[in-house]
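Hi U.,

Before I forget, here's the chain from the pilot set. I'm dumping it here mostly so it's searchable later in email.
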Amino acid sequence: MSSIARVRPRGDTAANWTAANPILAFRELAIETDTRRFKVGDGTSPWNALPYYSDGVSVRGQASRMTSGTISIATAGAYVSTGLTATFDSTTASGMTLGTTDLFALKNTSGATKLLRFYASIDASAGNNHILGIKLAKNGTAIDASECRAYSASGNAIAKLATSWMISVAANEEVSVRIANISDTTTINFQRGRIEASEVRN
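Structure:
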């Protein structure tokens, strides 16, 4: 009767792997027993530098603000941070947190570069007959191709702005929403907004 060979990868808790920080041999498999995530060695990189192998859970996150605020505008047409703090939804998140540089942003904490689909929306006004715009920004640099503009008409009507873009985001990089009053320096009255991200997988 033939026997079936069993392979038993190395295993330990996430905290113990991080503390020991060993170098895994080329193609060596090691598992975090408490998270069930795993890494594959390359023979040179210590544990903390290795990315996690596909763990079956897509990176995702969302943050929103449903209370009003004001955004000061110093230069017409210049895109700026909202300066507002969003509320992060930690219950549905995986591999993301609220931004740390910009508090209306999402930060990739998955430990690896990910292709993410971002969606952002803001409802705002700036007085009569103003054009408002939003863009996504990675690490503070605006992504011009993601721009969306809307008209804040008479009577302080709300401009509804929304944009969506795929962005490659490395570990610990963050993507935020930037806003501008294209027409002049009138303060923008923020009403509500959100930013969402989900991993694009093959």
